[in-house]
Amino acid sequence: MPTEIDNQLYYRTLEVCRETGISRATLFRWISLGILPKIFRDRRGWRLFTKADLNIIKAESRRIEIEKI
What we know:
Layout: E1 3-5, E2 8-10, H1 13-20, H2 24-33, E3 40-41, E4 47-48, H3 51-68
Antiparallel strand pairs: 1-2, 3-4
């Protein structure tokens, strides 16, 4: 379930992976490669993703699937 902070919904890493169908390792690799914009972190240092971030991840996943074909 997304977390709301300052009227903005944020998704945790596991939620992003489930929603987009990618693995945690792939998500972290894309972050380190700069495919994703700067990721918000909460006070514990956990990564939180916006709906816009999810859309970027889904688009990248589709792009890679198309390249495989």
